[in-house]
Design a protein that fits this description.
The complex is a heterodimer of chains A (275) and B (262). Chain A is mostly helical and 275 residues long. Helix content of chain A is 71%, strand content 1%. In chain A, strand 1 and strand 2 form a beta hairpin. Chain A is globular and about 65 Å long. Chain B starts with a helix and ends in a 7-residue tail after the last helix. At the A-B interface, helix 2, helix 3 and helix 9 of A face helix 2 and helix 10 of B.
């Protein structure tokens, strides 16, 4: 054995490697369940079919969108919705209620990273299924251009990572409310319903009523699904893309401050079950 | 038969007294349901946008479909999910033994033992939307349309029950199937729109392969006076077939049940 003390960096790296390996193995076992969980986000795919039907009925295009435009948008929206899934509110709720949160607090790493890795590794298992559906959709609807260019793809990856971070932190904050509330997961459910409505899963935001658009701009929802999808399919000019990334960072900062405060106050409030 | 009706009322009473303890859940669920319906109405408004027509349906006619969708979403949560999702648990832990030993029909017991009254507002809201939307249409439905609508709603319920029951019964072979009904729900969400909005082969899929059209669109057609004669017979056929299949499937599944410990 190497007796030399490890550098802090090396130490952290080892912890993350261990977490990644363990959770990847765990998630691979649950691949059938993950496939079924994916079905709870079918709304964009259903809307894809509905809007293509509308475009056909209107003789080709609705509001300037052709069938293949709709296909590109909704496949990108579905892909984005799949990449940002976070159930951490339920995990925290369960851990606090059952008292297992105490043992997580004793580990040499913040439980945040354990939950984070759990979600990241799950994306690796989900990935092949997502690619299969997206590829199938692109093949079935001729003329669908899902990725505008390699540059757009790279920026999309950045935008979707930011979107996931926002969604994950929101879910984490809701989970932490469990320190005080009895029913934090119901709040996460409410968030989910709102996000389906307001994130652009029903239609590209151009189709939303005019009075609703300005309100949506001040909410995080469009920045989680609608704008990343628009970036991928190349419907935004670069200046607009820069603005979207900036707003995402602002949202991330706001929710991070909220998270830090809840985390500090919550641990003080926490009296473990059975302790 | 009267014995079974009496049992249903006893089961309901027991579920009710257990659930009255969770009043906060009730309020939260109510808020969620209202948001969900507002979201779907927003979806309809967005879709109708310029065309003013949704696969040949006006806004109010499409709202009847949405009402039927909400009604069945509620009924599934009220009466089906709290029962059928426990079949898997019973098979895994072996408590299915106690169900099978009771001196009443086992399919009846696993199907009607529990009721989740938290979801009652969904059912009422669904009915409310149907009544509101039907009253908005220029020609009010006559008694014939109304009774046809009710008959087709009963057929729809039989179809939902049959599909949900058979999916849950696969627990006897696959054991861990608590989430398998998401398979159905993933497709069912398409039922909030009239089936005619879908392009060609998707419409065929939702009519004959996964008969969602017969759950929401066809009853709504009857209520708005748009029903074609053929649809009635097909709906009755589907309902009878699925009820029969669920009975047969249950008996078939029980034959391969070996309890948890042996």
């Amino acid at each position: 054995m190497n007796s030399q003390p490890m550098s802090p960096f090396e130490n952290t790296w080892r912890k993350f490697k261990a977490l990644f390996g363990a959770w990847l193995a765990h998630m691979t076992v649950y691949r059938a369940e993950i496939l079924i969980w994916m079905l709870s986000g079918t709304i964009p795919l259903i809307m894809l079919a509905v809007w293509i039907g509308q475009a056909q009925a209107a003789g080709g295009t609705v509001g300037g969108f052709s069938a293949s435009d709709f296909a590109a948008y909704f496949l990108a929206a579905w892909l984005s919705g799949q990449m940002i899934v976070a159930w951490v509110a339920w995990e925290i709720d369960f851990a606090i209620r059952q008292g297992t949160f105490s043992s997580k607090l004793l580990r040499p790493i913040n439980p945040f990273w354990e939950y984070f890795m759990q979600h990241i590794t799950e994306r690796f298992v989900r990935g092949p299924f997502i690619l299969a559906v997206v590829a199938l959709g692109t093949l079935l609807i001729p003329g669908t251009r899902l990725v505008a260019s390699a540059g757009h793809l790279l920026v999309y990856i950045l935008a979707i990572i930011l979107a996931f971070a926002i969604r994950f932190l929101i879910a984490y904050c809701i989970g932490l409310l469990c320190f005080w509330l009895e029913n934090a997961t119901a709040l996460d459910e409410l968030y989910f319903v709102l996000s389906i409505m307001l994130s652009g899963s029903f239609a590209p935001l151009d189709f939303y009523p005019a009075w609703l658009r300005p309100i949506l701009e001040f909410l995080p929802f469009p920045y989680i699904v609608y704008y990343p999808a628009q970036i991928l399919i190349g419907r935004l000019p670069w200046s607009e893309i820069a603005r979207v990334l900036l707003v995402q960072c602002v949202w991330l900062a706001i929710i991070f401050v909220l998270f830090s405060w809840l985390w500090k106050a919550g641990r003080r409030h926490y009296g473990a079950v059975g302790a | 038969m009267t014995r079974y009706w009496r049992l249903i009322s006893i089961f309901m009473g027991a579920s009710l007294s257990a659930q009255l303890e969770y009043r906060v859940n009730f309020v939260i669920n109510l808020v969620e349901t209202i948001l969900r319906v507002l979201g779907s109405l927003l979806g309809l408004i967005i879709l109708l946008g310029e065309n003013k027509s949704l696969g040949g349906w006006s806004f109010h006619e499409a709202a009847v479909v949405l009402g039927v969708f909400t009604l069945f979403d509620g009924l599934i949560g009220l009466a089906l999910a709290p029962n059928l999702n426990r079949i898997a648990e019973g098979v895994r832990t072996g408590t299915m033994d106690f169900t099978l030993l009771k001196p009443i029909d086992s399919q009846f017991l696993v199907s009607f033992r529990n009721i989740n009254l938290l979801r009652l507002p969904d059912v009422l809201l669904g009915l409310g939307i149907i009544v509101w939307a039907v009253l908005q249409s220029p020609i009010l439905p006559n008694l014939g349309n109304l009774s046809l609508g009710i008959l087709l709603l009963l057929c729809a319920y039989s179809i939902v029950y049959g599909i949900w029951f058979m999916l849950s019964t696969t627990a006897f072979w696959f054991v861990r199937v608590e989430n398998i009904t998401e398979l159905f729900m993933g497709f069912y969400r398409a039922g909030q729109f009239p089936v005619s909005v879908f392009p060609g082969w998707v419409r065929t899929l939702f009519t004959f392969v996964i008969p969602i059209a017969f759950i929401t669109t066809i009853p709504a057609q009857a209520l708005t006076g748009k029903l074609e004669q053929n649809s009635l017979w097909i709906a009755l056929g589907f309902a009878a077939l699925l009820l029969f299949l669920s009975r047969w499937f249950w008996r078939f599944a029980l034959r391969s049940y070996t309890s948890a410990s042996s």
